[in-house]
Write a structure and sequence with these properties.
Elements: H1 7-12, H2 21-26, E1 31-36, E2 41-46, H3 52-61, E3 66-68, H4 73-76, E4 81-83, E5 87-89, E6 91-97, H5 100-104, H6 111-121, E7 127-133, E8 141-146, H7 149-154, H8 169-174, E9 179-183, H9 185-194, H10 200-204, E10 205-211, H11 219-228, E11 241-245, E12 255-259, E13 264-267, H12 269-274, E14 298-302, E15 318-322, H13 325-336, E16 340-345, H14 350-353, H15 355-362, H16 364-373, E17 380-382, H17 386-390, H18 395-410
Parallel strand pairs: 3-17, 7-9, 9-10, 10-14
Antiparallel strand pairs: 1-2, 4-5, 6-15, 6-16, 7-8, 11-12, 12-13, 14-15
C-alpha cells in the first residue's frame, strides 16, 4: 500500500483530520489552520514552501497518516490485557462524576470534566490542553488552555464540529510545565507520535485522556440546524449567536443555539445526529483505526446499552478504561477522593455500549484495501490488531465494507483541497 509523501498529499487524498499538529510542527509562519468553506472544515494552508525535513517531520507526526500503538510492558505494565477491537486495558469501570452539577452540565456522565478539574486541583498538572467554544464565534471550536476549575467548566460539553487542539502543541511544550492533553483519540495519537520526535513530550505530558469518538460534522451541518429551528438569519445567522452547545445539560442533552437577544433554539440529540439530514463527516474518519483511545492513559465512552440513547436523563454514565499504570492510578485516586462514582466493570461491556466502534475496527482492513485498490494512498497503521479484529466478522462483512468504500471513492468523497 502507498502512503502520502507530503502535507499536500495528505489533504488532497482525504486523510487530514484537522488536528492542527502540522501548524505546530512547521510554525504558523509556514502553515496555518484555516477554514475550507463550504462545507466548513479546518485544513492547513501552506504559506511558504516546506523543506524536506519539515515535510518528513509532519509525515512522522501526523495522526491522519501514522498510527503505531504497540502494547509494551514498559508503557502498559504487567497487568494490562489486549482486546482485539478495543486495545490495551488494565481495568474498566462504569459510572459518572460524583458532583451532580458536573454529572448534569457537561456531556454524558461528566467524566472528563471531573477528571480535568481533579488533575488541576490535586496539583498533578499545571494546565490542560483541550478545546472550547470560540468566544466570538461560538459555533466554532478552538484550542484552549485551562488552569482552573472555572476554565474547565467553561470549556465543558461536546464539540461536534471541526477543532484543531494541537495547533499550539509545541507552544505548550515550550512552557516547560507539566500538563495533560484531553481530546479525540486521533489527537492523542498525534501526541503519541510526537514522543518519538521530541523528548519533552514524555517529560511534560503527564496524562493523556480521550473520549470514544463518533466523528464530527462540518459547520454546514450546524448551520442547517439554525435553518430548521428558525434562527434569525437561518443558515447564515452565525453572527447572531451568543452561544452554541452541541450537547450538555442532561444526557444526551440538546444541541442549543442562543441568539444575542437571549432566545433559545433547541434540537434533540437524536434529530441533530440521526435525523433525515444524516451525519456527514470526513472520509478519513471512515478509516479510523482507533476510535476509542487506545494510545491514552485513560479513555472514556458513553455507556448507553445498544450504543445510543433512548430517553433524556439528568446525567448519564460513562465507561472508564485505564490503559497504562499511570491512568489506572489516576482512576484509583479520583475514586478515593470522591470525584467519581463508579462500579467495576469489564471490557466485554464495550461491545454492548460501543458496538458501532467495534464495527468500524472490524471492517477497517477491507476499507483500506478498497482505498489502495482505487489507486489512493492510505495511512500507515501498525500494531493496532487489524487482522485480529477482521476475523471477528465473516467474509460477507468484509465485502460490504470493501464495496461501500469503493463506492464512496467513486463519488469523490476522498478528494479535498488545502485551505
Amino acid at each position: 500500500m502507498r502512503h502520502p509523501r507530503s502535507l499536500q498529499e495528505i489533504v488532497e487524498n482525504g486523510l487530514c483530520l484537522g488536528c492542527g499538529l502540522c501548524q505546530s510542527v512547521a510554525g504558523p509562519d509556514r502553515v496555518v489552520m484555516a477554514w475550507v468553506d463550504p462545507p466548513g472544515m479546518l485544513r492547513p494552508r501552506i504559506l511558504t514552501p516546506l523543506d524536506r525535513v519539515t515535510e518528513d517531520t509532519i509525515l512522522a507526526s501526523c495522526p491522519g497518516v501514522r498510527l503505531d500503538e504497540p502494547m509494551t510492558a514498559e508503557r502498559h505494565g504487567p497487568d494490562a490485557r489486549e482486546d482485539a477491537t478495543f486495545g490495551p486495558w488494565i481495568r474498566a469501570w462504569k459510572g459518572h462524576a460524583a458532583d451532580p452539577e458536573i454529572n448534569h452540565m457537561p456531556s454524558s456522565g461528566g467524566a472528563l470534566t471531573a477528571l480535568g478539574i481533579y488533575l488541576l486541583e490535586s496539583g498533578k498538572v499545571d494546565f490542560i490542553c483541550h478545546v472550547s467554544a470560540d468566544e466570538k464565534q461560538p459555533m466554532r471550536t478552538r484550542s484552549h488552555v485551562s488552569t482552573s476549575r472555572d476554565d474547565v467548566l467553561n470549556a465543558a460539553g461536546s464539540r461536534y464540529g471541526p477543532a484543531a487542539p494541537l495547533d499550539r502543541f509545541r507552544e505548550m511544550l515550550d512552557r516547560g510545565r507539566p500538563f495533560a492533553v484531553i481530546g479525540k483519540p486521533c489527537d492523542i495519537s498525534g501526541v503519541h507520535n510526537m514522543r518519538r520526535l521530541d523528548p519533552r513530550v514524555d517529560a511534560l505530558v503527564r496524562y493523556t485522556l480521550a473520549f470514544s469518538c463518533g466523528t464530527f460534522a462540518p459547520l454546514d451541518t450546524s448551520r442547517a440546524l439554525l435553518e430548521r429551528q428558525g434562527f434569525p438569519g437561518g443558515a447564515q445567522g452565525e453572527d447572531n449567536l451568543s452561544l452554541f452547545r452541541y450537547r450538555s445539560y442532561g444526557c444526551p442533552g440538546p444541541t442549543r443555539a442562543i441568539d444575542k437577544e437571549g432566545r433559545i433554539y433547541d434540537e434533540s440529540y437524536q434529530e441533530f445526529c440521526n435525523g433525515p439530514a444524516g451525519w456527514p463527516h470526513q472520509f478519513r474518519c471512515k478509516l479510523c483505526a482507533d476510535p476509542t483511545g487506545e494510545a491514552t492513559d485513560l479513555s472514556v465512552a458513553d455507556a448507553w446499552e445498544g450504543g445510543g440513547p433512548t430517553e433524556e436523563e439528568w446525567g448519564g454514565e460513562n465507561m472508564f478504561i485505564s490503559r497504562t499504570p499511570r491512568g489506572d492510578a489516576l482512576m484509583a485516586e479520583a475514586i478515593a477522593a470522591g470525584v467519581l462514582a463508579v462500579e467495576p466493570d469489564d471490557m466485554a461491556t464495550m461491545y454492548r455500549v460501543q458496538p458501532h466502534q467495534a464495527v468500524k475496527k472490524q471492517g477497517l482492513n477491507a476499507r483500506l484495501a478498497a482505498t489502495a485498490d482505487s489507486g489512493y494512498p492510505v495511512p500507515d497503521f501498525r500494531n493496532v490488531r487489524l487482522e485480529a479484529a477482521q476475523v471477528q466478522r465473516d467474509g460477507t462483512f468484509y465485502e460490504q465494507n470493501y464495496e461501500g468504500t469503493k463506492l464512496r471513492i467513486q463519488r469523490g468523497v476522498n478528494r479535498e483541497r488545502l485551505a
